[in-house]
Design brief:
mainly alpha, 2 strands
Length: about 80
């Protein structure tokens, strides 16, 4: 079994449909379920928006940049003994 859209990463935290590898019928059924169920479609849309805010919001972006800067300073600062 593998997650539908597994290679999209965090999206699977929202969707969580599972299909057998190369099983076109299961994939079709999972897609049809989402498209035909208004409540599920709405819930997945709202959860997807929340996920995007958390995964790609400015707080997370700023923290990632800070980590890069801190790592660069530590790695390349002459007083750290990096020769």
């Amino acid at each position: 079994m593998r997650d539908v859209l597994k290679n999209i990463g965090s999206f699977m935290k929202v969707c969580k449909f599972r299909v057998e590898r190369d099983d076109k019928d299961q994939l079709r059924d999972a897609i049809f379920k989402v498209l035909s169920d208004e409540g599920l479609k709405e819930r997945l849309g709202e959860e997807g928006k929340k996920l995007v805010r958390v995964e790609f919001g400015w707080d997370r972006i700023v923290r990632k940049i800070e980590v890069i800067y801190e790592d660069s300073i530590f790695r390349y600062a002459p007083e750290r003994g990096n020769k």
